[in-house]
Design a protein that fits this description.
29% strand, elongated
Amino acid sequence: MAKVKVTVIDKKCYPELQKKYCMDPDVGLCPMFEVGQEFIIEKGNGKDDFWHMLDGKFCSEAWDCVSRYIYAGLQGGSIMKDWMRHENEMIACCNDGTRPVIFKIERIDE
């Protein structure tokens, strides 16, 4: 069974941008994820988390940003060869420019 682990490694907040651009200037950090939170995405033996976005447990905006790396890992491929120190890993973030969440994506080789 192919597996990829996604770990929330950081959350950022840019209050100056939120005050300037957001409807709610005090929106703060993303409430969807917590640093240290982990997700295991599996594919095989009748299970396919990828196509079900973890049954709604993952923000759809963040999923759009990281799913390509997850898919590559589930297919056994290099996630980011010659960019990251380990080709089975990628550091990526969601596209919320005022409060991005940063993820570590790892292909699990068992």
